[in-house]
Amino acid sequence: MATQTTLVSLADYEALPRDLRCELVEGELRELTFPRWDHSQIQFNLLLSLGQYLKTNPIGRAGAEYGFILGRDPDTLRSPDVYFIRNERLGLIEGHTWMEGAPDLAIEIISPSNRRREIHAKVSQYIQAGAQLVWVIDPDTRQVYVHRADGTTQGETDSLEAPDLLPELKINVLEIFDL
């Protein structure tokens, strides 16, 4: 006999204790683990690079671990490790809750608990919900995989650029991994 799973809605999610670390994926809660040292330092380095760029090019906002509603019925609420949103899309954040749709750039840092299929699902969900770019950072191999909305993917070992989204931004990949 099959068991039936009760799906969780965004309203149900909002009622959960605030210290519970989880995402909502197609109506199911997925527990998140706390990041390791290398993960947090890579996240910091990315935020620092984006922050410096945005200080001189105020075209949007960057941040970390904020909720994006990537799907409805069943609901999906994902939180990229780092994100960028263009100024003209900041109005989609109503009442300082979660944004409907994906950030323009979503950055995921692979954790030891992540499975390849899970990372591919996240990338696909971000792209389908409107992300122009998704960067997947692999701390173990020290590589970055760039996924574009047009479906192309490339591995990057030198520098990260996003000319259509963040003109003149150039992040040295080695600096991301400077722990």
Description of the structure:
- This protein is an alpha+beta fold.
- It has one domain (35-176): tt1808, chain A (Alpha-Beta Complex), CATH 3.90.1570.
- It is built from four helices and 13 strands.
- The chain has helices spanning 10-14, 37-56, 116-128, 173-176; strands at residues 22-25, 28-31, 60-63, 68-71, 76-78, 82-86, 99-100, 105-109, 133-138, 143-148, 153-156, 159-162, 166-172.
- The strands form four sheets. Strands 3-6-8-9-10-11 form a six-stranded mixed β-sheet, sandwiched between helices. Strands 5-4-7 form a three-stranded mixed β-sheet, with helices on one face. A two-stranded antiparallel ribbon has the order 1-2.
- It starts with 9 loop residues before the first helix and ends with a helix.
- The model has no long low-confidence stretch (mean pLDDT 89).
How can the largest sheet be summarized?
Answer: 6 strands, mixed
At the fourth level of CATH, the homologous superfamily is: tt1808, chain A
Average pLDDT figure: 89
Count helical runs.
4
Number of domains: 1
CATH class: Alpha Beta
Q: Any idea what the radius of gyration is? A: 16 Å
- Amount of beta strand: 25-35%
CATH topology, which one? tt1808, chain A
Strand order of the largest sheet: 3-6-8-9-10-11
First-to-last CA distance: 51 Å
The CATH architecture would be Alpha-Beta Complex
Shape: globular
